[in-house]
Specification:
This protein is an alpha+beta fold. It is built from 5 helices and 5 strands; from the N terminus they run E-E-E-E-E-H-H-H-H-H.
Length: 121
């Protein structure tokens, strides 16, 4: 799934002639293109989809949405590192969301067993 996620602009610069920003999505920081919102400023919030800031958003709405996404596990689904997730499923890394994986029934088999075994140790 690919969400449009609210984020707070931390800093703004230019990269290869394109206005870019470093944006915080509830603890996950990514680089975002600001070409669709050229007047967006540091400290403001925007809805971001596939790396592009699309619409300005007030802080209250942004925080409420980020909290809801976090509760639903959607931020990790959207921003999680697939390599870390694979390592967690194989039980070879200490991944911060490993508990969530072990609780999900679709992780049955060797990978799911490895996660559960690692958590029991």
């Amino acid at each position: 799934m690919c969400l449009a996620v609210p984020g707070r602009v931390l800093d703004i610069g230019e990269k290869d002639g394109t206005r870019m920003a470093t944006v915080d999505f509830g603890g996950v920081v990514k680089e975002v293109c600001l070409e669709y919102l050229p007047d967006l400023q540091v400290g403001e919030y925007a809805i971001v989809h596939v790396g592009f800031a699309l619409q300005r958003l007030d802080e209250g709405s942004a925080r409420q949405t980020l909290e809801l996404f976090a509760q639903l596990g959607m931020l990790q689904e959207e921003f999680g590192d697939p390599w870390e997730r694979a390592a967690a499923e194989a039980g070879v890394a200490d991944w911060p969301f490993a508990d969530d994986l072990a609780e999900q029934p679709q992780h049955a088999g060797a990978a799911g067993d490895a996660v559960q075994e690692a958590q029991q140790q």
